[in-house]
Amino acid sequence: MAPKPEQADKVDPAADVTTQIRELQISLATITQQQDDFKAFLASQLPLLIKEHVNARPVTTFSKPSSSSDRPPTLKIPKITLYSFDGKEPLDWIFKAQNYFDLSNTPPPQRLILIPFFLQGPALSWFKWLHSNHLLTTWEEFLHALEVRFGPSSFTNHEATLYKLHQTSTVIDYQQQFETLSNRVVGLSHTSLLNCFISGLRKDIQHELTILKPSSLTQAIDLAKLVEAKISAQNKLFLRPFKRPTPTSPSTPSNSQPSVLGSPPPLPIRRLNTTEQLERRSKGLCFNCDEKFHPGHRCARKQFLLFLTDDTDADGDDVVHVDPGPQSSDTVLIDPVHEEIIHSPTSGEHFQLSQAALMGPP
C-alpha cells in the first residue's frame, strides 16, 4: 500500500496574532511620525508668518496731522491674547477667535495652521483626529464642526426655552440665564426681548415694571434690580418682631402692710381626717406639729390651718394642714389655733371674719 502524503502544516494562531501586533505597531509608529512632522512644519512656518505679518502691518504711531493733511492719527493695536480652548463654552470661544484673527488680519488658510496652538485637552485631540483623516478644508467648515462637536444640541429650541424662562432666585441670576439663551436666538426685535424679560420676572417685580414702563432692555434690568431691593427691605421691616413695652409697676410705700389676698406660691397640704384628729387629741399632740400640747403652746414653725366642717355630720370634721415652707417677708402667717373644736349648738350659724378685722387698724 502506498504511503499517505504528509498533511500541510497547520497555521499557528500565536504567529498570526504576533503578525497583527507587529503591523499595528508599524501603523502607530507611522502616525506618530506624521504628527511629529506636522508639529515641526508648524514650528518652522510660525516665525515666517509672524515676520510677514509684522512687515505687512503699517507702522501705527501717533503723529500730528500736518496743516496740509486732514488724515486722522493712526492708533497702535494693543497686544491681545486668545486663551486656549478646552471644549467648554465653544460659542464664546468662536466669537473671540473670529475677532482675534480679524483684528490681526490673518488670512483664513493661515488660521488653520495657527489654531492648534490655541487648543488643549479634548479639543486638541479632536483637531489631531481631523488633521490625520484629512477632514480640515476651510476655516468656516472648521468652526461649524467645532460648534457641532462641543456646542449645544441643534435640536434644542432655544427661542421656546427663552419664552418659558422664569425668575426662580434673584434678578441677577435671572439676567444671566436670559442673556445666555438670548445669545443663541437670532432675529428677535428689541421689543420682543423686552417683553420676554419682563414676563419672566417675579409677579411683584413684574407689576412694578408694568407701572414704570421701561423703554429698553437695559433700563428694565436696572429697574428690576431696584424694585427687588425695595421689596426686600420692606419685607425685612414687616417681619421684624414687635417688642411690647414693659409696664412699669407703681412704687408702693415701704410702710404699707402686705396684702392678705395675694397669691402665694402653692403650698403642700396635709389633710387630717376624723380618726387622726381623735388620735392626736387622745395622745395630747398638737394638730400643727408632733409636740405635746399645753396651755400657751407655740409651734416651732408657724403654719396655716384650714378646718373643714360638714353641717350634716359633726364628727366628720377634717383639718387641712398646709406647710408654707421657708418663710418670707411677703408671707402672712396666722397663729395656730387651739385643738379644741367647739361646735355651735345651732348648726346653721357659721363664723365669719372680715378682711378689715384681720388686717387690723391702719
TrEMBL record:
This is Retrotransposon gag domain-containing protein. Residues 245-259 have a biased composition (Low complexity). Coiled coil: none annotated. It comes from the Eukaryota. InterPro entries: Retrotrans_gag_dom (IPR005162), RTL1-rel (IPR032567). Residues 241-269 are annotated as: Disordered. Residues 114-202 form the Retrotransposon gag domain. It comes from Trifolium medium.
